[in-house]
Write a structure and sequence with these properties.
The chain contains two helices and 13 strands. With 172 residues, it is mainly β. Strand 3 and strand 4 form a beta hairpin.
Length: 172
């Protein structure tokens, strides 16, 4: 399993009958069920997920192999992956987070700023966490058309025009 995209995670047990609390990372949260079977990160486990009902911050769901609260709790923190071929294609200006992680980021003058370490979303626009070149420091870059005018997946690079104050001042 090489081309998997994270679509959700198991947050633990929901009740005492083996139901799971599942968080969906899909644009349409209910779509997580349509990508079944879902896989563990290493591709060693397959899950036939069925959504039972919406609950606060996700869904109550069932997986046939999970019969008890203890079984469900044992899966807490398991990230759920779908095969890329199952997922819809995206418009030209949208990207799966997995495709952005690891890309090199350059400023508009061609100077390498760093690499995308993670993609975060805390309710507004996505944020690219950059591992700055030549240092262990990271910074966040808004993933907007203005701050990131070019994403070239084929070349493995992003061209960014960071807002003032985003990057550390090299003179300090």
């Amino acid at each position: 399993m090489t081309d998997l995209i994270c679509v959700g995670a198991i947050a633990g047990a929901y009740g005492v009958r083996g139901e799971l609390r599942v968080k969906s990372y899909c644009a349409v949260p209910e779509d997580i069920e349509t990508y079944t079977p879902l896989w563990s990160e290493d591709g060693s486990r397959k899950f036939a997920l069925a959504i039972l009902r919406p609950i606060k911050n996700g869904f109550a769901a069932r997986i046939p192999e999970v019969a008890t609260k203890e079984d469900a709790d044992a899966l807490r923190g398991t990230r759920l992956y779908a095969e890329r071929a199952q997922l819809p294609g995206l418009p030209d200006d949208e990207f799966y987070h997995a495709d952005l992680i690891g890309l090199q980021v350059y400023d508009t003058g061609g100077v390498m700023l760093g690499r995308v370490k993670t993609v975060q979303n805390h309710g507004a626009d996505d944020l690219l966490e950059l591992q700055l070149a030549g240092t262990s420091a990271t910074t966040f870059l808004p993933f907007t058309k203005r701050a990131v005018p070019t994403v070239d997946l084929a070349a493995g690079r992003i061209v960014a025009d960071p807002p003032e104050g985003t990057l550390p001042d090299p003179d300090n």
